[in-house]
Amino acid sequence: MKDSMTLADAFQNCKYPVVGHGKRNVRVLLESLEGTDGDTASDMYGKGDTIERFEAKMAAYLGKPEAVFFPSGTMAQQIALRIHCDETGKRKVAYHPLSHLELYEEDGLKALHRIETVLLADRDRLIRPEDVRDLEDDAACLLLELPQREIGGQLPPYAELEEISAYCRSRGIRLHLDGARLFEILPHYEKSAAEICALFDSAYVSFYKGLGGVAGAILAGEPALTERSKVWKRRHGGDLISLYPYVISSDYYFDKRIGKMAQYYEEAMALAEMYNGCADTIRTVPAVPASNMFHVHADVSKEALESILAGVAEETGVGLSAWVKALDDGGSGFEATIGDRYAAVPEDRLRSAFSLLGHKLKEGGYRA
Amino acid sequence: MKDSMTLADAFQNCKYPVVGHGKRNVRVLLESLEGTDGDTASDMYGKGDTIERFEAKMAAYLGKPEAVFFPSGTMAQQIALRIHCDETGKRKVAYHPLSHLELYEEDGLKALHRIETVLLADRDRLIRPEDVRDLEDDAACLLLELPQREIGGQLPPYAELEEISAYCRSRGIRLHLDGARLFEILPHYEKSAAEICALFDSAYVSFYKGLGGVAGAILAGEPALTERSKVWKRRHGGDLISLYPYVISSDYYFDKRIGKMAQYYEEAMALAEMYNGCADTIRTVPAVPASNMFHVHADVSKEALESILAGVAEETGVGLSAWVKALDDGGSGFEATIGDRYAAVPEDRLRSAFSLLGHKLKEGGYRA
Fold it and tell me: pLDDT tens for residues B28-38?
């Protein structure tokens, strides 16, 4: 606990944090409201100009007929899967063992919707076309998360996505996109969001990951699905009298950062190269990032890596991560996500930081 | 449709709207943020100073050990009822036929939680102790809404509340308070919120009714219930990374208006007296309000009342209601809720408006 506090504090106080956009504080909301006229009417239970215009904008961007704003992706995705089940008359959906629904939602899909799940692929690799061909006829829907966050934001080759999509269509299996980080992968695929979403029956996107907004999500698809999703939004308690604090900020940060995804992606590749080049005992997963994020794995204990990263931050002013977690193999790791901060780190400082990181990893006599 | 637009427009453009606090626009949020330091950290999935301090403040105010902030009352109440069912091992809850859960939630309680409901009392009257004594042993929980909004905000005598509470305790039936308008009834009962909540096992309150905030709700109760409610909040998709836009505004409007509830109540009684004195064909339900709200029933058609109220607004500048709905008995009605606006209406204008209202109701030759 003490070491962890020390790393968190060292990151908090360092001059050059490398990851993220900035602190998650009230200024994020205030900045997004600066250009907003106080006379702008609130949305009322999902109706009104502000929310409907943003929904139409995102529907167009994602290339779907309709889009509905939700307070959270947890709510939007459970509802999408529920509707796919109801429409197909089946009660089973498939997704990756490290899906958000499996790890972070307290089994809401099962507890609230009584939907059974099939875990496809192994924990440490992506779902492949051959996994999908193993699906039985009772599967209503397959959820694909692009990129797969919990394994460092890996992405399948685009041709595999097309293959999975064609197979699912041929078998009447609905395909849902967990696009929590969809914006972030467009530079890698060199595709538009609409091109990717065209492979899916429904798509969810988030506004507080790569875009750095306050909170909020969009679910896009055919009108039959989006209309039903509004009924379920009401049932879940998400059809608030006023969602405009999230709508306005989501719209603002979409406009502010959607054009910066290629920059973040290139910066992530540059940063990953520095990790992979600094010592044999540290590497990135994937080796070459496919988005603005990747994971870092080190062959040293959690406590050792915390101490090393805190030392690097104190000695060079460069904060590489605010936290470290223990890995099952005895090593340790953390997630790196590139945002606005990276461009403000002087390159020589960054080089010094990695030189020191490599030195500390080697001198520690840690197992190679 | 045309007449309805005309009344809405007449209300929108009138100089002296009588009901409500003001327009629901972005200024409501901006005002609440004026005193907030941009450096204030966001809450993170229900943790952090801003949200925890407000929860503690509301727990103390409601006299319960713990309180949890929710995005909506729909979510908070379904979850409270679910937990009462799970803890008692029963699957049935009882409430009024015009409960919010029955009218406005698309049957979320049944669709998501598979809880059966028992409708107590008739649609046009309050639940009485004798209704509660009819409950069978399979009822986990009784929900009481104070005041009962859909019948004009009626309230039972306090002694009946105590009787119902004692009976439920003796029978192991949990008692949940739908306190969407709890703050508004304290002057009538001359009780503290904590005294009233002490009769209940759990209580929900809202921040955008009498308090006029943006959105948000609190669920208060014993730690076993509140801790479980956080798990269900996550399952519902309501455990957002950042709820601070609602937390900060709820806190602000609580402080701004909690001391004005007695004033609103007195103003509601004065306004109701004017309705009841102006013509035989119009009256309030209840005859004497028990809070800042009441309903108005008139023995004229919806269209006729819309036209009369639009005329009053245009001729006197006093807007009594923005809308009218048809009632089952062939007459029409609307809801009146007192907020900050009432005090800004000059008394002579109000008298002129009611004189004209009475005149128009009489001259119209409408059925008495």
Answer: 999 999 999 99
